[in-house]
Amino acid sequence: MAENSVKLHYNVDASDFTVAGQASGAVKKVLKQLGFSADVIRRVAVAMYECEINMVIHADGGEIDVEITPEKIRMIHKDRGPGIKDIEKAMQEGYSTADEKVRELGFGAGMGLPNMKRYTDEMNISTELEKGTVVDMTVLVK
Amino acid sequence: MTVKEIAERLALTPICVGDVEKCVTGCHIGDLLSLVMSKAQSGDAWITIQGNINVPAVASLTDCAMVIVAEGMKLDENAQSRAEQEGISIYSSEKSAYALACEIKECL
Ligand SMILES: Nc1ncnc2c1ncn2[C@@H]1O[C@H](COP(=O)(O)OP(=O)(O)OP(=O)(O)O)[C@@H](O)[C@H]1O
Ligand SMILES: [Mg+2]
């Protein structure tokens, strides 16, 4: 099993909007090279992009670890942000605390977390106020 | 119809030219990126008034055939270079999203 696993690590810089999407873009390329189906690639890439953007606009950046095996792709996003006060609320479609600047860029529909939930098979959020948030998502290869 | 044919028919201004032989199979209008990511289909022509770096990123993630920046809105410089890297076809137009979508419907 171990030789069948690919591990990737990324740092997400919150000060620079132009790098947001870099990690999900890179993972998308790797999955393509490894021959995963278009459906799996889309689900992983969209979930990761949403999460990566959240790390930039709502938190202070952080780190992403990805583990790819033939059976599943697991993505762990750790940030150093303010944490999420009410996860249940945050998971609702349309709920967003994005400010005007971020909305002008097209974010703030409040669809990011619902998208992650929809596109992944497992999703766990652990969060601590003023410490940060960990979003752990898995896409199964069926 | 291919990206190239649609660009000609609709008199679009090319900003970044990717794989123009790709087939356009549908259309999506949207400016809220995470909504686009939940609704846009592979092969869509995506019409938006957004012009920032996230446009090529989202187009690539959703596997859109082409992006049309409508209403005469401009694409940022870094969005353009990102589009080139990703090989995304992006065009601009002075027309409204509605007018463009109506014309695309005639092409499908
Ligand atoms: N990593 C995070 N740290 C702190 N708060 C977060 C984090 N991720 C999400 N949130 C909170 O949860 C809310 C909902 O997130 P979600 O991604 O669904 O929507 P959004 O980012 O506001 O808009 P969209 O994703 O549609 O552009 C956010 O507005 C924010 O308040
Ligand atoms: Mg979000």
Folded structure, characterized:
The complex is a heterodimer of chains A (142) and B (108). Chain A has 142 residues and is of the alpha+beta class. Chain A is built from five helices and five strands; from the N terminus they run βααββαααββ. Chain A has a five-stranded antiparallel sheet with strand order 1-2-3-5-4, with helices on one face. In chain A, α2 runs antiparallel to α5 (112-119). Chain A starts with 5 loop residues before the first strand and ends with a strand. The mean pLDDT of chain A is 94. Chain B is α/β, with parallel strands linked by helices. Chain B has one domain (3-107): Udp-n-acetylmuramoylalanyl-d-glutamate--2,6- Diaminopimelate Ligase, Chain: A, domain 1 (3-Layer(aba) Sandwich), CATH 3.40.1390. Chain B contains five helices and five strands. Chain B has helices spanning 3-9, 33-39, 54-62, 77-86, 97-107; strands at 13-16, 26-29, 44-48, 66-69, 90-92. In chain B, β4 (66-69), α4 and β5 form a beta-alpha-beta unit. The model of chain B has no long low-confidence stretch (mean pLDDT 96). The site of magnesium ion has 4 residues of chain A, from α2.
